[in-house]
Specification:
single chain; 163 residues; Peptide Deformylase; 5 strands; 31% helix; binds zinc ion
């Protein structure tokens, strides 16, 4: 398993809901946790590893006890707006300002298969909104201001050339 980078077509492939959370699913989730930490990321969405399902993992820090998976997540409510810097493992070296909701209510299935709704705010809310974007094939590129697109044009071209 590897992180695919822009413009890999996996990032724009339609995602399917996860039907069952079985051992095979859990094994892949564990692989995603490992890859996220190895890549020094705080979140990873399934399409970024070429897996076209609605699943994401996150951990804002280094403590593996805080590894978390959100399966079939749906953002039910958004409150407040806040601008903050964002990067993406699929756009290495590129950082841009993105406006996100400050707080969200997110409904998801957890690793045990239970469906629940939780309120998340600030950095974690930002991570979840970024990763849910991936599930809808919305990339950092699409969230950039026109000025940022110009500013990172060269980096984007380099990524495109590397294919
Ligand atoms: Zn990303």
């Amino acid at each position: 398993m590897d992180v695919v980078t822009y413009p890999n077509p996996s990032l724009l492939k339609k995602t399917a809901p996860v039907d069952v959370v079985d051992d095979a699913t859990r094994a892949k989730i564990t692989e995603m946790y490992d890859l996220m930490h190895k890549s020094r990321g705080v979140g990873l969405a399934a399409p970024q590893v070429g897996w076209s399902v609605r699943l994401l993992v996150l951990n804002p820090g280094d403590d593996r006890a805080n590894d978390e998976v959100l399966i079939n997540p749906v953002i039910k409510k958004k409150r407040g707006r806040v601008l903050g810097e964002e990067g993406c493992l699929s756009f290495p070296g590129i950082y841009v300002q993105v406006e996100r909701a400050k707080e969200i209510d997110v409904e998801f299935t957890d690793a045990t298969g239970a469906r629940r709704t939780e309120t998340r705010s600030d950095f974690v809310a930002r991570i979840i909104q970024h990763e849910v974007d991936h599930l809808d094939n919305i990339l950092l590129l699409h969230r950039m201001t026109p000025a940022d697109r110009v500013r990172v044009k060269r980096e984007l071209e380099t990524l495109a050339e590397r294919g």
